[in-house]
Design brief:
Elements lengths: L2 E2 H4 L7 E14 L2 E14 L3 E5 L6 H8 L8 E10 L2 E2 L8 E5 L6 E5 L1 H11 L7 E4 L3 H4 L6 H29 L12 H27 L3 H15 L2 H11 L10 H8 L6 H30 L4 H17 L9 H22 L5 H6 L7 H14 L4 E5 L7 H18 L2 E5 L3 H7 L2 E6 L2 E7 H6 L4 H8 L39 H5 L5 E2 L5 E2 L12
Parallel strand pairs: 4-11, 4-12, 9-10, 10-11
Antiparallel strand pairs: 1-14, 2-3, 2-5, 5-6, 7-8, 12-13, 13-15, 14-15
Helix pairs in contact: 5-6, 5-10, 5-12, 5-14, 6-7, 7-8, 8-9, 8-12, 10-11, 10-12, 12-14
Bound molecules: adenosine-5'-triphosphate, iron/sulfur cluster and magnesium ion (MG).
């Protein structure tokens, strides 16, 4: 006997990363209010992949944008609901952000936005974007800035979300050779110990460089990669290996002529005291940013503003900036930033290699308009994966890619899931991709989740007539004789959504009750829920 989900659905277990409840997002347009999401509820657990499917205009992207709070406001507005990310309510303070008035003339709804509150809410989101929630956008062209090069855009994301790791890497790689006693990793080391390490690592680096040049003469790419990897290991900076590899590659006739380029890469290990001091300041600023993010997370968890704590951190940040104002002076600025700039450039190249871009150096130096849609998509995937997020929202990540690259990208996402335990919300039209990578599937129709189930369960036993229609419209290898069916009609205009079950005008099983009230979500098996009167209600079958 089916049971209403509200009563019987198990409470989400402790490892739930994202818990969305009753989410409503509307767009206030001149034609009327588009009710794009109308009570969306689902959750994602750590390390789980949820596939979100549905026809075009069903609200899949709006769900993704609502979670990341990237809904264009105006005209959009999240009206109601809770989005709990690791226990922090991302929608805390929503009710104070805007007021709604119905105008007497024409009955239109006027939204009076409080932009100060909206800005505060956006600032809070900085605490979860990047390392917390990362997103691959459906349209890479509109998600990238046309006036910055690809490497500048990847570098910005890297510094914003993984800045401390980049800086720590640079500081500790140069610490052994430098011997100036700064606190690179919080430990002042003994001078003699440093001196001996310096000599040792210098010798090992020279040997690795000689080996690299020797291998370059053989014109063997694989051997060259191994030699570059060796150089990366002895210097402690993988990016030096990458830079040296591209410096000597192709110079097999006269590798010695590429030596200055390799030396340029090694210069990062011998930073000037001013450059090191700049990095230490940047590190301290990042620690303060982390404190601020923690304060924001606490606010969203406890539902209580920590104004004083935030002001104190901001004051410390300002004071540090003022004390080190000279890093911003003309002539100093470029010089002190050089090692960091070089490092992030070559780390960007490594990330582009990771998404199988064949000419990563050229692409990193290029601008968005110079790349094809598929290449841009891969750049964005590189950016999103670089921060090892806890939740990755991928909005049609592989639609613009050819099949071989698709498989590689899905493999990258699978690796991330295994390595970091990332939870993935995968939005796609491709039910084949879902079958391949998802653990559960949520079927969306006209702003509602109508069925959610473990992937096998849904493919073998789809319950909602809409899910049945979607599955009947894809070709099947196991039964080629079966003709493809399509769902009659199209997704309704969400300004005037149909009453009751929004699918009733297209449903072959529609009953009078379907027009009257929205069907509740009911549990129909282990983790299988459906919103349809065929399974629960006055005329439920079986
Ligand atoms: N900026 C906007 N202004 C007005 N309406 C919007 C806006 N953005 C989205 N919508 C509406 O929200 C609804 C859901 O759109 P959404 O982009 O989420 O669809 P989708 O399921 O992602 O479709 P697709 O598969 O084509 O990407 C649509 O009716 C759309 O018209
Ligand atoms: S509730 Fe009614 S209209 Fe909606 S899917 Fe079920 S049978 Fe069809
Ligand atoms: Mg979309």
């Amino acid at each position: 006997m089916p049971v209403p989900a509200a009563d019987a659905a198990p409470r989400p277990p402790g490892d739930v990363v994202l818990d969305i409840r009753n989410l409503r997002t509307y767009f206030f347009t001149y034609d009327g209010v588009v009710k794009a999401l109308d009570g969306v509820t689902f959750n994602i657990r750590r390390g789980e992949t949820i596939g979100l499917v549905g026809e075009t205009g069903c609200g899949k992207s709006v769900t993704a944008f609502s979670v990341t709070k990237l809904i264009p406001d105006p005209p959009g507005r999240i009206m109601d609901g809770t989005i709990l990310f690791k226990g922090a309510n991302l929608l805390w303070g929503l009710d104070r952000e805007a007021k709604f008035k119905t105008l007497k003339k024409g009955g239109r709804v006027k939204v009076v936005r409080r932009f100060r509150r909206i800005r505060q809410s956006q600032a809070r989101m900085m605490a979860v974007r990047g390392g917390g929630i990362s997103m691959i956008f459906q349209e890479p062209t509109s998600a990238m800035n046309p006036i910055f090069s690809i490497s500048e855009q990847i570098s910005e994301a890297l510094l914003l979300h993984r800045g401390e790791m980049v800086i720590d890497g640079l500081l500790s790689a140069s610490a052994g050779r430098h011997g100036r006693g700064e606190k690179a990793d919080g430990v002042r080391r003994d001078r003699t110990e440093r001196a001996s390490e310096e000599g040792l690592s210098s010798d090992r680096i020279d040997v690795a460089v000689d080996e690299l040049l020797k291998v370059a003469r053989q014109n063997d790419q694989e051997a060259l990669r191994v030699a570059a990897q060796k150089l990366a290991e002895v210097t402690g900076l993988p990016s030096i290996g990458t830079q040296s590899f591209y410096a000597v590659r192709g110079g097999w006739a006269d590798p010695e002529s590429r030596l200055p380029e390799v030396r340029k890469a090694l210069r990062r290990l011998n930073m000037s005291p001013l450059q090191r001091r700049f990095l230490l300041r940047e590190r301290a600023l990042r620690d303060l940013n982390q404190e601020l993010k923690n304060a924001y997370m606490r606010e969203m968890r406890q539902g209580k503003a920590e104004l004083l704590a935030r002001r104190r951190i901001s004051a410390r940040r300002l004071s540090l900036r003022l004390r080190t104002f000279y890093f911003g002076l003309w002539g100093v600025r470029g010089f002190v930033r050089r090692p960091l700039k070089l490092e992030t450039f070559w780390q960007s190249v490594r990330l582009l290699e990771g998404v199988r871009i064949a000419n990563p150096v050229q692409v990193a130096r290029g601008y968005p308009h110079e790349l094809s849609g598929g290449m841009l998509q891969r750049v964005m995937i590189a950016m999103a994966l670089s921060s090892d997020p806890e939740l990755l929202i991928a909005d049609e990540p592989t639609t613009a890619l050819d099949v071989t690259i698709q498989a590689q990208i899905l493999e990258l996402m699978r690796n991330l899931k295994e390595r970091v335990g990332t939870a993935i919300l995968l939005i796609t039209h491709d039910l084949g991709v879902i079958a391949e990578v998802a653990d559960r599937v949520a079927v969306m129709y006209a702003g509602n989740i109508v069925e959610i189930a473990p992937v096998k369960d849904l493919y073998l036993r789809p319950l909602h007539p809409y899910a049945q229609g979607l599955l009947a419209s894809i070709p099947r290898m196991d039964d080629p004789s079966k003709s493809l069916e399509s769902i009659p009609g199209s997704v309704p205009n969400l300004i005037y959504p149909p009453s009751g079950c929004r699918f009733h005008p297209r449903c072959p099983h529609a009953m009078p009750v379907c027009k009257e009230a929205r069907p509740p979500m009911t549990v129909e098996g282990e983790g299988h829920q459906v919103a349809c009167y065929l399974y629960h209600g006055p005329v439920a079958k079986g």
